[in-house]
Design brief:
By secondary structure, the chain is of the alpha+beta class. It is 62% helix and 9% strand. A hairpin with a 2-residue loop joins strand 4 and strand 5 (397-405).
Length: 418
């Protein structure tokens, strides 16, 4: 049963079809080869001579190899191999062959495919009629009396014809299975990714990861800050609900405005997720000139000082600086509660400096399990801009500082997940 499955199972049948397709692809090259051989032999009848046919076959293979050097040949070969050869799809390369090594390997595969496929296709066309004739020879007198040129048409010798016919069919099947397995073994070698393909794929994965990390930071900073502010406002309103209705109304208005703004930012980022990587890489957002609105809704008193022209800061730097301030305020709200925050942004020379300070909490506050990723996100943003950031206790206060150049310069996104 196992042998029958290997010889006639679905994989074997698909590989046989793949070989026959190779033989069909050989025909234009073979016809061109017959023209060349016919011209070289002074117009001899190529189809009436087996040696000349073999010579035409030999001429066809190098012509086919040259035609397979075009980059488009690899995607076509890979598609056929994935569908019919029964190999791991991941072991084969995607896209056209760009490098010289990839084109040469594709040419080798194509030549092997049509060469072996041409032989198996010829056997598939010729052997079954011959084998069937041998099988029925003892039972059909007309075949024995015809001039077939067979040595088994007389006497007891005719009894050997059916076994020989069945053996010919079995040999055809075994040859097809063996050649199909040969192609399946060589497909990953000749159609697999080259070092250049692996490098291109790694760069593509790094780019996609960088885009996802950037969008993750946008969501973390925007939504995380909003939730911290809403939590603080709701907590304060609950404590004075009966004694200070005016404050409760102000807190609810701040919660409404914060959530409305955050839903808008969330929709914008989710919209980018539905677009291509190029659009997602250019995530838009508020900049330093929008800090007044952020500080008015943050739910904590902020002593804000700005030195220099914030409007002159380039868009990318301004947007990243805004997110750094936003995340710093979120950390202050999360750990310091309603303690006042001192914020200073200085734009001068060729750099931007952000300094944020708030008192250390006198009692331990409950934060979400596992901590957050905000400080790492701040460091990543500063590094993206070619600068640095640090945060920690200093002189009895919590101090966050970030410094980076004004000039927009491309940099690789940090690859770590946030």
């Amino acid at each position: 049963m196992i042998i029958a499955t290997r010889l006639l199972g679905r994989t074997a049948r698909l590989r046989w079809v793949h070989l026959v397709l190779g033989g069909a692809a050989l025909m234009p090259y073979f016809l061109l080869g017959t023209v060349i051989v016919g011209a070289a032999t002074g117009g001899a009848n190529v189809y009436g001579s087996l040696p000349l046919q073999l010579a035409s076959f030999a001429c066809a293979l190098p012509i086919a190899a040259v035609s397979a050097l075009f980059p488009i040949a690899r995607p076509l070969s890979v598609a056929a191999a994935r569908a019919l050869c029964g190999v791991d799809p991941a072991a084969l390369a995607d896209g056209p062959a760009r490098s010289r090594a990839a084109r040469v390997r594709t040419a080798g595969w194509f030549t092997l495919h049509i060469g072996v496929g041409g032989v198996i296709s010829g056997m598939t066309l010729a052997l079954p009629p011959f084998a069937i004739t041998l099988v029925v020879l003892p039972f059909v007198a007309a075949l024995r009396d015809s001039r077939l040129g067979l040595p088994l048409t007389d006497g007891r010798a005719v009894l050997f014809a059916p076994p020989l016919g069945l053996a010919a069919l079995l040999a055809l099947v075994c040859c097809a299975v063996g050649c199909g397995a040969l192609l399946a073994r060589w497909a990953p070698v000749l159609l697999g990714p080259t070092p250049a393909d692996r490098l291109a794929a790694a760069e593509q994965r790094a780019t996609e990861l960088a885009v996802r990390n950037r969008l993750a930071r946008e969501l973390h900073d925007s939504v995380g800050h909003a939730l911290s502010a809403v939590t603080l406002q709701a907590s304060a309103a609950r404590r004075v609900f009966d004694s200070d209705p005016a404050f409760v109304r102000e807190a609810l208005a701040a919660i409404e405005e914060t959530t409305r703004r955050t839903v808008g930012e969330l929709d914008a980022v989710l919209g980018l997720l539905r677009q291509g990587d190029d659009e997602a890489a250019a995530v838009a957002g508020p900049g330093l000139t929008g800090l007044d609105g952020l500080l008015s809704r943050t739910g904590v008193k902020v002593a804000y000082t700005a030195d220099g022209d914030l409007a002159a800061v380039p868009e990318l730097v301004s947007r990243e600086a805004y997110r750094i301030v936003q995340e710093g305020l979120s950390n202050a709200l999360r750990h310091g509660g309603a303690a006042p925050v001192a914020l200073r942004i200085a734009v001068g020379g060729e750099e931007v400096e952000i300094v944020m300070e708030n008192p250390l909490p006198t009692t331990a506050r409950v934060v979400r399990p596992g901590g957050g990723r905000g400080l790492r996100g701040i460091a990543e943003r500063a590094a993206l801009l070619g600068g640095h950031a640090q945060a920690g206790p200093q002189d009895g206060r919590w101090r966050l500082s970030a410094r980076f150049p004004l000039t927009e310069k491309p940099a690789n996104e940090p690859g770590g997940a946030r």
